[in-house]
Amino acid sequence: MDTFALFLKTIVFRPYVFAFLAAFLFAAIQLIGWPRTWRFWLISWATAFVCEFSSTRNGIPFGWYHYNGSTVGQELYFSNVPFMDSISFSFLLYAAYCVALCLVLPIGSSSASTWPMFKPLHLDMRARTSWSVLLLTAFLFAFIDMVIDPVALRGDRWFLGKIYYYPDPGFHFGVPFANYAGWAVVGLISLAIYFPLERRLPAFLPPPSATPRLLLGVGLYYGVLAFNLSVTFWIGESFMGMSGLLMHLPVIALLMFRLAGPRRVSQSG
Predict the structure, then answer these.
(1) How much is the pLDDT for 205?
(2) Can you list the pairs that 37-46 forms with residues at least 24 positions away whose Cβ atoms lie under 8 Å?
């Protein structure tokens, strides 16, 4: 079948994935501009595809798993990997990146705040491409998959469909922990490639407070989380849903404290 026709069928077949992708593109362009956004997307998508292609053949880096091809002809595949699956890594990595930035970026002067209820975060180049942001993003990236993958594995009970399986199911609701390690690897590789490019691209003038634009990415992270938790409860997996919710509550509390908690009187930009 014609590739473009299959791409259109994929959009109709997986509208929620492309809604999240559109939200990512809008949010990223607002924060870092188009030249950085398309590089971020391309690097993360290519890295995810190569890793998925590899893991379905030799078990590296996600461990062994297989796509069963049940939706071939209904949606676009690259080799044996569904396109919608590999592009999901891009918007999830960006969303995790925004949460990490909110936890790490320096807090600017209160006079720079455009939203008085939130502290103004300064989009400092050194901070936004630092080791702490890289490692924290990779963790948050894998952390959200600990909610996504268990419910995706039960896709035959909702509209995702049964599209993959693990030959050796793991202890975390059937998902091997090697899978989460693989997600962290994808995040680390993607950002390790992107950050040097970020530093070499022409400088742009960040807003006095990046908080409102960062919150678009944070909203994407928790929008995806809420979507997957909702599906988890909808299919009757209450214990799995409560487990995922309780895992993420400490990060949510920490994020809210950083953004809206008490302010230091001597804080400077």
Answers:
(1) 78
(2) 39/194, 39/197, 39/201, 40/90, 40/93, 40/94, 40/194, 41/90, 43/190, 43/193, 43/194, 43/197, 44/89, 44/90, 44/93, 44/94, 44/186, 44/190, 44/194, 45/86, 45/87, 45/89, 45/90
- CA nearest neighbour of 120 among 265, 217, 258, 253: 258
What is the per-residue pLDDT across 216-232, written as a single tens digit (0 to 9) for each?
999 999 999 999 999 99
Rounded Cα distance between 249 and 63, Å, is 28
CB 31 within 8 A of CB 220: no
Q: What is the mean pLDDT of residues 40-49?
A: 98
Distance separating alpha carbons of residues 81 and 53, to the nearest angstrom? 7
| pTM, two decimal places | 0.94
- Tally of residues, the chain: 269
